[in-house]
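Re: duplicated header lines in exported structure tokens

Our pipeline writes sequence and tokens for each protein into one text file. With two proteins the header for the second block appears twice in some exports. Here is an export where it did not happen, for reference. First protein block:
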Amino acid sequence: MKHLATPQLWFVCGSQHLYGPEVIEQVAGHAREIAEKLDASAHIPLEVVSKGVLTTPDEIRRLCLDANGDPECAGLILWMHTFSPSKMWIGGLSSLQKPFAHLHTQYNRELPWDSIDMDFMNLNQSAHGDREAGFLHTRLRLERKVVVGHWSDEDVQQRLGAWARAAWAWHDWQGANFCRFGDNMRFVAVTEGDKVSAELKLGFAVNTYAVGDLAERIQAVSDSDTDALIKTYLDEYDVAPELRPGGERHDSLRDGARIEAGMRSFLEEGGFKGFTDTFEDLHGLAQLPGLATQRLMAEGYGFGGEGDWKTAALVRAMKVMAHGLPGGTSFMEDYTYHLAPGQHQVLGSHMLEVCPTIAVSKPRLEVHPLGIGGKADPVRLVFDAKEGRAINASLVDMGSRFRFIVNEVESVTHPDLPKLPVARAVWECLPDFKTACAAWIYAGGAHHTGYSYDVTTEMMEDFAAMAGVEVAIIDADTKLRDFKQSLRLSDLYYLLAQGLRA
């Protein structure tokens, strides 16, 4: 995956000197063992490193400041093995700028009923040590994830893993750069947004670059580099006969290959993690980048159509959360509906730019007219998406704040679409079509989305908490009356939240 660092999670254990050096030594050993087992878990994608036992305010403050300044640290996992008076943590946690999870566990799984004594009780005090910590976290209004259960349980490791993937994506956003080739589609509201607020709140920068500069990079692509990409296409895809070497439309494929090579060069040189373009600004390009965008997304770049930089950043974050998982993640658009009685479905697609990681089988490489943009017929990968549970997510600018919207959906099979030569997915919304679509519209969700079989609602909730951003969930439990009321309460909460923290 392009420009993806692999940071660490710091496992931090709290205690105090009241118990004496022998107990502290035992606590440290237990903390190391838990960190090692979490590090070895297949559910946690990042390295977990034990940072020992903290017993004084100075140690805690120093570690939190170290975490802030360490680019290798994506977040902290906190656990109070014994009782750690939480006033010691005020200075450190109030200055901490990295996300943290609170693991409410204990070293032993079962109580030794026939031998338990006060020495055992004094050593294994997580039951109330973590409550002391939890009070302070709540008193300071700190966003965190609380995971409860024995550290060896698979469900505990899965929940920590979901948080770790969100922390990974949040780490990836900090200092990230996103490139806009041209502006957004004219007169469209939802693709606009406050890029200054985004960099301040979300950590990434968005800047515009001239399409003419991209065109120069494309024109400089050598024939040998173009030939190499053509060979890759022939190896990886079912290429239409007219696009193959010697075919009557082979020049269209060569144009598509030059666009891909030029865009990749531009993005790599600039260190960008995602990009946008728009069919209204294609100066110097032979065709709208379809194949190029699909393949760059498959490499991990975020993308948003028509200048939609918020969705480009969201797709990148979802790509990072899903890294190493098999399902696939893509830019998507809710395009049109099937409203047969009892079978309400959404046909999701875009003009060209759907990522082949969600394809159910080998994509077919074809060329067809686009009908808009005024350029040559673009090449593109055509395929159906996989079946299965997925999420559709949106990031919108509400003016005073940002909002994530997440809808859980079920991707389904559908009839053949012989006259629709684009990549596509068909899904059914939870809890049902009418409730989900109404909730999405009430929440201000965009028509552009991030669509993923790997990213879960839990990951998106954790990610939104790290960003300090509202998240509206539409799932099997959604009731429209309650959902509308929660949006009203969120307006009030986010207006008042900064004053509540003091």
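Second protein block, exported in the same file:
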Amino acid sequence: VLKMADSQLPLTWYWNGKYWQGLPREGMEMAGFYLIIGLGFVIFPTAIVATGAYLFPPVEGSPLSWVPLFWSILTFVCHGICLLWLIIEYYQFPVNMYLRALARRWQNSFVTRLLS
């Protein structure tokens, strides 16, 4: 059994003879609350910016008429990235190692296709 106790809710895995399998997390009754808070963090600011753009639209044909739509999308993307970063930090997901493994796999498949 592996247990990462360095988090608010400890992560636990056990070896079933073939692969590591996660145990159900303790304290999952708060998961719904965290989901609502996370979605609110992404949707609420985007809705504020989009509502402002809807209520006060730019003048048609003006050179910067694209800014409200771009600003709304940028708000959504930036808040989504913040939420994703928090999830990655909480679960300690090794992004760098994952990307290196993907690059190695693509490189190996590319080399095998060239040699075939």
